[in-house]
TrEMBL record:
GO terms of molecular function: odorant binding
UniProt xrefs under InterPro entries: PBP/GOBP (IPR006170), PBP_GOBP_sf (IPR036728)
UniProt similarity note: Belongs to the PBP/GOBP family.
Identification of the protein by name: Uncharacterized protein
Record's keyword terms, sorted: Membrane, Secreted, Signal, Transmembrane, Transmembrane helix
Record-annotated membrane-spanning stretches: 6-26
An annotated GO cellular component: extracellular space
Organism taxonomic ancestry: Eukaryota, Metazoa, Ecdysozoa, Arthropoda, Hexapoda
Subcellular location: Secreted
Species assigned in the record: Glossina palpalis gambiensis
Record GO biological process: sensory perception of smell
Amino acid sequence: MEVALNLLTTYIFTIGCVVIIFILFYPRSISKATLQNYVKTCAIEENISTTDLKLFMTWDLSNVSNEGKCFFNCFHEKIGLTINGVLQKKIAFGYLKRIFDRETAVFVLSECINLTGKNKCETAYQVEKCLFNVEYNRLAK
């Protein structure tokens, strides 16, 4: 447990650098301290493992546990990106327009909006992977 908390602390301190997807979707009305609290709260509530934390920090979303997937759902819910596991199109589009031109924001939203999983945790995970893949491909160009 102590190792997990140490990794969690590292994760929180490096959130600005490591978790680009979260940064892209931060509502400007929410302070960094509040966002860090959301990350910590969701990590504890969902009981994510040190393995998941390591995966998140290295951008490896291929083998995320169910708890890790539920972490994404928890965080999305806290920032208002999803409500009861449903991606909020207007809110997501507003966040996307902060980092992309309108045409690209529409494209990204169309790529990721209709993804669903067997439950809200799986859906949040699918959306997160989609957003990461789109952003990764954009930065790779």
